[in-house]
Predict the 3D structure of the following.
Amino acid sequence: MRVSYPSPAVSELPYYAALSQGFFAQQHIKLTELMMPPNVSITALSKGEIDFTDSPGNAIEGATRGLPFKVVFSAWQKSPWNLVGKTQYNSIQDLKGKVIGTNQAGSTPYIYLQAGLKKAGLQMTDARIVSSSGTVITYQSLIAGQVDAAVLSPPFDAEAELAGFHQIQFLGDVLDLPYIGAASTTSYLSAHHDETVRFLRALIEANRWLKDHPAETADLIVKYTGAPADAAKKSAEQMIPNLWQDNFEASPTGLQQSLDYQAEATKTKIDITPDQLVDYGPLHEALKG
């Protein structure tokens, strides 16, 4: 099974745990993770070059273009996006006219930045936005001094703070968009139903394991992202409480917000409802054990 992801990050913890603890192997799944930018993953999924994307946001974007994508799993209750920058900036308003780094237009961090600026009475045009193919690239731009602030997720926000930057604003509360999970095509889900159920069982077991093993979770962050131990510990403490505990379904409110932002970004009317974006049949089977 081939799954795309944008960059090594704490958001990938359910996948890291399922790999390292053998949950995929127990379900007879041989998983290959392929790092690729969001726009590339949408194309790859539509062509069958990958079987899943770990980003519900990418799948929703594809669905609004008429592609037969469905979200099947959501791992996180809240997106942990942080606006981190130079210490002379203490509020999002201070960034007017400054350079802000984030992922590509339409990506989840881009949308969270847009919402954060709007809540502060600003627009994207009030700053110079520098887009990258992934959060690790955005982080590197901040460290290199190429941007004044950046939208980062763990462990990169913690690493940036260790490097002398600070949190300007937490953006995870401004929206309820689905974060990391799993999405595929209707044709793949139909042809590989049993495999999909087993794949989701492994992710469910991984989420449960992570909640019960905080110290080992920090070790996974170090192993898979290369983050320093202190940044990994801080990231684990921040992220573990946000793992889904019940149904692993994306919030209908968040799904609608995703549709609204795609409509705004493309200046088109989108005749899709949140329930048309998802297929939770395999998930419900996986939850039954």
User: Anything to note?
Assistant: The longest helix spans residues 193-212. The chain has a mean pLDDT of 94.
